[in-house]
């Protein structure tokens, strides 16, 4: 088997055009990119994806359905023998559109829900976007397309997390992908909404409790790549058995990211400037995957080379060889380099044991282009020292628990 078949899943931004204006949007979506792929180029890329062994493609934006030929692309993916999914903000998917999605072969849809109504609309930058997200889920249900939700966890959404779960459960989701908001794109300009590292200590018991409730009720909670890392709830959050724990960044190993102008990355979330391995207008997809160093940085996993990039806390961590610094995207957008991840539950716990509290602050702002990042610095301070006044600070006291949950304490804390 040739080396390029290491990658099996692709996330494809088919347009940067969007009908929302999210405070946390990493790609700063809104207008189309310059020189987005033509229909002919997109359909040729579908062929190349199948040739290199991709099994599943998720179409994203911006907002994917704002590209006029998006259903042609979806149909071509299906006809090529790959699974086609879509991630959407859900603003404007009518029942007719949902039925056309079904006819095009789209197998699964993930709808973004980032809070209860007021919080969601605030984060998404448009009044009525929450109502539309749930209307879209209803249309998908009528059309017979399985759907889940995805949620960004930050200081605005975290207090509402249990109640968000109940809303999407009642809407009929089968799965819920969760991840921490990180400072890429618009979120770098709105860093006050980001959770501070020490706030993870009060966040994770809540995430574990909600996850346990969801699993009891048949909803599969799917943690994103910046969730967890070897804290007391790691196996619970990742599925519950002995082998479900974080095993390192998969960029370029299992995943592929495609931008609307044909740029290829090892992960769709990675910053464009530092991680683009080439463009399909210049080289074939196979050549980029096989040859581009930007897609090969994880190939040293399991060898001494696999930890060469680590620095700071992550370099000294007992899980360094397995973890390799957690999510490369998360580390890079904080510090403009990968290898030291502040969003780690294990790290927060270890620092607290030593009486240390970590906080970050913005040292250099982002440039204001899609998939960009600024640079943050970390402060280490005595754990119980006074904190600056911060009206958005998160604590367990702010969590909005449904009343009927009070008699169902967390019973599973797998190490």
TrEMBL record:
SMART domains: Elp3
Keyword 4Fe-4S: yes
Gene3D superfamilies with a match to the protein in the record: Aldolase class I
Protein name: Radical SAM/SPASM domain-containing protein
Organism: Microcystis sp. PCC 9811
Span of domain Radical SAM core: 4-220
PROSITE patterns according to UniProt: RADICAL_SAM
Cofactor(s), names only, from the UniProt record: [4Fe-4S] cluster
A Pfam match: Radical_SAM
Domain of life: Bacteria
Keywords assigned: 4Fe-4S, Iron, Iron-sulfur, Metal-binding, S-adenosyl-L-methionine
GO molecular function, one term: catalytic activity
